[in-house]
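User: Hey, quick favor. My workstation is busy. Could you predict this chain's structure for me?
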Amino acid sequence: MIGAQSDALLSLAKSRQPADRERLLMNIVSLCELAGVGASDEAARAKAIIDELFMTLVLDAERTVRRRLAERLAEVTWAPKALIHVLALDDIEIARPVIARSPLLEDDDLVRLLLETTLEHQIEVARRPEIGPKVCDTILDMGDPAVLVTLAANLTARLPEGGMARMVDGARTMPALRAPLVRHPALTAALGTALYAWVGDVLQGALVDRFHLDPEALGLAMGEAVREAKTAPFGRPIQIERSEDHEAMEQRLVEKLDAAGQLKPGYLMRALREHKLSLFEAGLARLSGLPLEDLQAAVTCDRPDVLAMACVAAHIDRSVFRTILARVRELNGGKPGGDPEADTRASALFHELTPKDAVIAFSRMVQVVAAA
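Assistant: No problem, here it is.
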């Protein structure tokens, strides 16, 4: 009976007729009831049909249907996990309730969303109640101000060790972080004293009232902040002392992406679109197996063919090299230099070199550039 029912339901799922849609929904309800009555063979087969049916519907469904389905499935435990993943990766209006409430999304799933999706998805992950240290650590590594502010306002988030200190450090250059941090229950008196130097009068008063801060300690904190401001080079941002420097944070992010199997050429393109040249360099170094210092030299030299060799070594397709070259130049003051003829020669390397050959050629060319 189940087999015949499966064929009938899958046929209904492909129909656009309103009457068929209504029959389909009623049958789905019946199957859900059957699948939830125990661990019998009949229940297991019913669940398999539900999984297949839902995936068929979602992959072929209109946007409004996907949005309603996401709302209905956001809090259930019986939905197919693959379907929940598909909805969480959909447009943000569809993904939002699933990201916010689905019990089927675990920390590893949320980390994947942070690494693969848009800023709007990342903000929703940071807003989700009870996110764990692994998720918070990834948000801290990525360092996007909007996502960090959302994390700071999420009082149920379970921060990793040192996570609050990293956010207080970030508040020096991210004013929007300051107010939520002042109210955060994980803020300590010591961190409150450090934060005092970077907030306005109202928030300073709130810190004094909350922690009964020592005026002498506050004076020292303010004096240190003034000295840093005076010694900073004119017209340049104040250099922040971090528990880990920016390059190390990006390296950790790249390593996490690589370990999760998500470090792909498309991510490098995304880094360039988001004006993150150093993250692009770190990712390209990881994908190609080339030293980061040599890649940084390639990006600043006057030969586009050196960057092309690195892209070949990283298995990047020739079709996107011109775009990569243009975006790198936009972010790097026109470097690597070159003219249209040099760009054409660089593009030709994608046909002339294998990735293994490109590694050898790159290493030799870096030496030539360094000696010039």
